[in-house]
Write a structure and sequence with these properties.
Helix content of chain B: 25-40%
Strand order of the largest sheet of chain B: 1-2-3-5-4
Helix content of chain A: 40-55%
Shape of chain B: globular
Number of helices of chain B: 3
Structural class of chain A: alpha/beta
Number of strands of chain A: 5
Number of helices of chain A: 4
Distance between the termini of chain B: 38 Å
Oligomer: heterodimer
Strand order of the largest sheet of chain A: 1-2-3-4-5
Order of helices and strands of chain B: EHHEEHEE
Structural class of chain B: alpha+beta
Strand content of chain A: 25-35%
Radius of gyration of chain A: 12 Å
Order of helices and strands of chain A: EEHEHEHEH
Chain lengths: 112, 156
């Protein structure tokens, strides 16, 4: 299915580069990877969605779950690279208030 | 000779197995059908594509909840390209749902808000489209999504 996930380390953050489409088909794979990262002690996550062409509420749910787990583990999730339409979906659902949202990965990493 | 009465609407209908790996196809068909209407802004097509993804996801889950996964379970997506709007119907034969059952989500500032990973789809459908209508029973659900054509006044 059309989802790519790459993880890089940067200044104490795990930067998760997500590409493709996040829906009910692909979301479980992203969820598992994020659970795995927090389980490895990597709870400071930048999730970059610059390569994500489509994101629906299943995708939002995975990100919400990741933020919850990261915060419980003493870290957090910062989202970066959101395309306009995806940002709109966060705004409609009010989730733009529940997440730290940065423009770029550089900004996300610098803010922490 | 031209026929009297309303202009004929143009219908595109897709029937898919009630399986998530067909979601992308459903989104693609609806977005492409919508793009046939020149006045639709890209953003509006993206809105509709997302609303359809939500409706189809609910339909797939409704079938899955029946507990007896059946290779013949089908979902029908019907796009009617009418003169002033596009109407998309998503029809499933899952178990239906009770609109009264939907929990209202905690306020966004409430940390408990992060406990709700589900339940956003219906709210999204209502906000992203001009009309959203549900008909649901134990036999299944029909979701009707309507997006009006972008009038000259609305265009950026």
């Amino acid at each position: 299915m059309d989802l790519s996930v790459q993880v890089l380390d940067r200044d104490g953050w795990s930067v998760v580069l997500v590409g493709g489409e996040i829906d009910i088909t692909t979301a479980p794979r992203l969820r598992e990877r994020l659970i795995q990262l927090v389980g490895e002690g990597k709870s400071r996550l930048v999730i970059d969605l610059g390569g994500v062409g489509f994101l629906d509420s299943t995708g939002l749910g995975v990100l919400v779950g990741a933020a919850r787990r990261a915060r419980t583990a003493g870290g957090d999730v910062v989202l970066s690279g959101l395309a306009d339409h995806n940002l709109k979906v966060f705004a409609i659902t009010g989730l733009d208030q529940a997440f730290v949202i940065a423009g770029t990965i550089d900004e996300a990493v610098a803010g922490g | 000779m031209a026929e009297p009465g309303p202009a004929p609407s143009q219908v595109v209908e897709l029937e898919i197995p009630a399986r998530s790996d067909y979601l992308d196809l459903a989104r693609m068909v609806v977005a492409t059908a919508a793009s046939l209407e020149p006045s639709f802004a890209d953003e509006r097509i993206a809105d509709l594509r997302l609303a359809v993804s939500e409706a189809c996801t609910n339909a797939i889950e409704a079938h899955a909840h029946l507990g007896h996964p059946d290779a013949t379970d089908r979902i029908v997506i019907r796009c009617d390209l009418a003169e002033d709007r596009i109407e998309v119907e998503v029809v499933d034969k899952g178990g239906g749902f009770d609109p009264g059952d939907l929990d209202s989500l905690p306020a966004v500032e409430d940390p408990a808000r992060l406990d709700y990973e589900r339940g956003l789809g219906i709210g999204l459908m209502r906000t992203l489209t001009d009309e959203t209508e549900f008909s649901t029973s134990a036999e299944g659900t029909k979701v009707r999504l309507v997006v009006y054509h972008t009038s000259a006044a609305d265009r950026p």
